[in-house]
Design a protein that fits this description.
This protein has 3 domains: about 60 residues, Alpha-Beta Plaits (2-Layer Sandwich), CATH 3.30.70; about 55 residues; about 60 residues, Arc Repressor Mutant, subunit A, CATH 1.10.10. About 55% of the residues lie in helices and about 5% in strands.
């Protein structure tokens, strides 16, 4: 049985969900970002108990197909931006269509209707959070960050960063101690 879980965005999330499943005496087949695969059907009572346990940790079991698709879009974007060394040089529209085996226009309309922003805006918000993280580490030059994040230039990165955050990269770096990053599952427009 495959279950879909909202707000699983990192390896710690996988560990937390796996621990909850194990507490219930269930050995999962696999636990990945956004999905749990269980051996067979554990029954309504155990699923309800698991759902309540996951809710307490900030996760949510998804039952509706459209909600699962929106969550799959988010998980894929987060995976590509936050868990890869650099962003693929292919359009996200192509990647999403291939990954989810759906027409991009359908995915785009579904996502916008559910989230109130476009997929492109969500990608920009996620990229901005990743740039903030890389600036905090202070290990890469702006040119390296721009290249890794798929920007055509430092100027393009800087312009988009200012548009999203309201401040320049240099101002952000100078005030890094007072700047707060958002958890990546809470990234949304201002």
């Amino acid at each position: 049985m495959k279950l879909y879980v909202k707000n699983m965005v990192c390896d710690r999330c996988i560990s937390a969900v796996t621990a909850e499943i194990n507490k219930m005496g269930i050995e999962p087949v696999s636990v990945q970002l956004g999905t749990i695969e269980l051996p067979g059907n554990p029954g309504t009572e155990k699923l309800d108990s698991l759902s309540r346990s996951l809710d307490l940790l900030g996760f949510e079991l998804l039952y509706d197909a459209k909600t699962r698709t929106v969550e799959a879009i988010k998980q894929f974007i987060i995976q590509q931006i936050h868990h890869m060394e650099s962003i693929p040089r292919v359009n996200f529209s192509t990647l999403l269509s291939e990954h989810l085996h759906r027409d991009y226009s359908y995915l785009s309309k579904l996502f916008s209707g559910s989230e109130g922003i476009t997929i492109e805006q969500y990608i920009i918000l996620q990229k901005t959070e990743r740039v903030k993280e890389l600036l905090l580490y202070n290990e890469l030059s702006l040119s390296q960050i721009a290249d890794d994040m798929g920007y055509s230039s430092v100027a393009h990165l800087s312009g988009q960063f200012k548009k999203v955050t309201g401040e320049t990269i240099s101002h952000y770096k100078n005030n890094i101690a007072s700047n707060k990053r958002k958890p990546i599952d809470h990234v949304s427009p201002k």
